[in-house]
Fold these 2 entries.
Entry 1:
Amino acid sequence: MTESYIQNLFAERIGGKQYGKSTAIYKFAKIKAAKRAALAANPGAEIIDMGVGEPDAMAFPEVVAELHKEAQKPENRGYSDNGDAVLKEAAARYLDRVCGVRGINPETEVIHSIGSKAALSILPAVLINPGDYVLMTTPGYPVFGTHAKYYGGLVHNLALTEANRFLPDLDAVSADVLSKAKVLVINYPNNPTGASATPEFFAKVVEFARRNRIVVIHDAAYAALVFEGKPLSFLATPGAKEVGIELHSTSKSFNMTGWRCGFVAGNELLVKAYGDVKDNSDSGQFLAIQHAAGYCLDHPEITEKIAAKYSRRMDALVAALRGAGFSAIKPKGSFFLYVTAPKAAVKKDGTRVQFKTAEEISQWLITEKLISTVPWDDAGAYLRFSVTFVAKDQADENRVLAELGRRLGEVRFEF
Ligand SMILES: Cc1ncc(COP(=O)(O)O)c(C=O)c1O
């Protein structure tokens, strides 16, 4: 077959003429393929899927009712552009009541997003010129960095390690990188490590940003999913609004991943510039969805119920993994449990299987034990277990976790 001339037209940022020709298979595609193969080899068997990165449950009925009500209003039907006052005001109230962030001006310091992912893909256009550096944590959610590179920017990775409680070591960034760095992207509670920030760390980030004239983008996608105490907002740090913005989302906090709604808040200049680029990228989220999201922000007890479920599941998951020899420590928030990957598994008959990477054990767990996890080899070898696995009710939840423990208990892991 002759190749379409279109093949020669692709932009270099997505591979140019080579676009689509790479045979490399990415992590999540490998996981999917291994799950398909495991099911084909074990027809009817149950895969315990601990790899899911989104809530297992629906939005709460009262939120769906709110959407239904708002969707029937003719005035909500059209382009919403950068949104009306409803979500903005609810966001300012939410930041105040739930996160202790005082004095956010809903008119000038908040604009909605069609999810944090969309905001992270828009914001590089606001800040990145060719040659500018972005400081990103690794392992992490790569979207800002991907788009920064599209604009000719460079990503400098800051490793998240156990020794630093999965907080980046800002003092280790070289003067050369700092002189070209424009943005620091952080995310707490963190995906995938499950780590939480501290007020002291955030204070250090503000000081670091001021000293080096850097913008801070705090991706707070999991901020409200905490197992004890109140959510910790970067914006609650003295001086934070002078250096950055925070991205909130209803996706994880209110079981609304498919609804696509969040907000960007903080520094007025940055929010304005985000709005200007956003205006040239999308025409705003459906107002009925924005209004239902606003309803959620005024009902943080919904998130508390979701977090209580994750906390309960997390306790049982930690116990099951500890029983199998993993050194699992319950995180303070998010729905992720990040554990050191075993180096080997020894079967009852003495056969020993060795794993050089987290990806190897993750593949082995799917194939041999029908347990799906997400491997991370970016800063040490780790497995990410998510408590958003599917279970009908609490009894089923216990059954799934007991079964996980049983399957893992069939071998002895070496670390
Ligand atoms: C760290 C992080 N940021 C942002 C997102 C995207 O969230 P949203 O659904 O608001 O686009 C995710 C989703 O997995 C995430 O893990």
Note: The first strand starts at residue 48 and ends at 49.
Entry 2:
Amino acid sequence: MCYALDVKTPDTLLDAIRYFSDQDRCRVFVASLRWPQGPVCPRCGAIEPLFLQTRKLWKCRACKKQFSVKVGTIFEDSPIGLDKWLPALWMIVNAKNGVSSYEIARSIGVTQKTAWFMMHRIRLAMQTGTFRKLGGEVEVDETFIGGRARFMHKDKREKKIEGTGALGKAAVVGLLERHGKDGYSTVILKHIPNIRRRALMPEVHHHVEMGAEVFTDALPSYDDLGAVYMHKVIDHAEKYAEGKIHTNGLENFWSLLKRAIKGTYVSVEPFHLFRYLDEQALRFNTRKIKDAERFVRVLAGIVGKRLTYHALTGAEATT
Ligand SMILES: [Zn+2]
């Protein structure tokens, strides 16, 4: 393809690295996605700012403030150039089984710590925040992820086991809508405190529309679903499927998810688990679109999202 200075999207990682090696091109690319009608002052909303060629910044004619394309996005305050951010974003959104911070660090030439922080900011852009409820045929199932309990002291371990009910692992509920509007299934994942009724029911009510057909296993926590949904149960002690009554879509998803987490991430801290879940859900839900399209879709989610290093690590320390 031709690499003119307009918005063309690269097709492969190699293309992306080559294409985004030019800072000017990066800026034009992000600016045209962010401001399709031309740059707008992020502070006062005035249009048609001056472009300061030497500083590569815009200056607002109304409030006189200068701004870069990074202001008000996940890239704000980052000393890392877009020529590194954009290939990193490409790698993360398109790696089928996930990618480690070590791999990002090596590929784009930053430290592992920097790569780790970049990845968390990118995951923030990957949170789709969809408010659409799932409908039609919906599978609901739960699983446990992690299991660092074996590395803990015995007293601590016992406490932890009592607390979560499954060896200190993190409980996750999955909700999967079969053949949605585009013909493909969509998944929503949530990190929940445990798999008791009190933790599971609100998630189902929040994400699944009334009257939907809901398929679960025989876990008693799901017993009340029949009040609002057409609830069908498959008892895994007996068999795994009876016609359309099964949770095989989620079973397959869980094995993908666990392979990705085991193979790529050395350990997932429970505090950060939701970020990994969002990342995996987004990749799954966009599995039928092209890499370039997925990249652009996530890049469109950079605006209005910020994550400071302090928020990321400070919050972790108190969890
Ligand atoms: Zn302004």
Note: The chain is about 40% helix and 15% strand.
